[in-house]
Amino acid sequence: MPLLPGRSERWAEVQAELDTSRRTAYDASRRRVGIVQESFAVQNVGGQDVVVLQVESRDPALSGRKLRDSADEFDVWLRAAAVEVFGSDPWAALADGGAAAQGHHWSNVTSELVAR
Q1: Any alpha helices (H) in the chain, and if so which ranges?
Q2: Which of 52, 63, 66, 97 could form a disulfide with 57 if both were Cys (CB 3.0 to 4.6 A apart)?
Q3: Pairwise pLDDT comparison (73 vs 105), residue with the higher score
Q4: pLDDT, tens digit, for every residue of 16-43?
Q5: What is the pLDDT of residue 98?
Q6: Contacts with 63 (C-beta within 8 Å, 6 or more apart), sequence order
Q7: What HEC string does 62-81 produce?
Q8: Confidence at residue 116, expressed as pLDDT on a 0 to 100 scale
Q9: How far apart are alpha carbons 113 and 19 in whole angstroms?
């Protein structure tokens, strides 16, 4: 998702809020809609900042519909912030079946790799 011109700093502010003051609401939102994992990575492509969004859910379209249609205060805030920096709601794309086709996935569940 390309960041709108001049919106990289605002996106960094949103990310900081998701990791601090809005963390509890963010976690609750993702549990409520069935998202198991979500990540955002900012990359510069051809001189433009883009955000790569990865969402893991058993049913990404259902999760997207729940987020798109949610009246929860946090979800409304995050949708507005996304429109401010991207010009659109990325989770609505999930609702419309806009999730990328799953490619190769590998996972190792052996205890020596997950021990902390």
Answers
A1: 8-19, 23-33, 60-69, 73-86, 90-95, 111-114
A2: 63
A3: 73
A4: 999 999 999 999 999 999 999 999 999 9
A5: 62
A6: 33, 34, 35, 55, 57, 91, 94
A7: HHHHHHHHCCCHHHHHHHHH
A8: 45
A9: 26
Contacts by 85-92 with C-beta closer than 8 Å and gap 24+?
Answer: 85/3, 85/4, 85/7, 85/10, 85/11, 85/14, 86/1, 86/2, 86/3, 86/4, 86/7, 86/51, 87/4, 88/1, 90/1, 90/53, 91/55, 91/63, 91/64, 91/67, 92/64, 92/67, 92/68
What does each C-alpha distance from 92 to 60, 66, 88 come to in angstroms?
10, 9, 8
What number is the average pLDDT over the span 66-77? 96
Determine the residue type at 70.
S
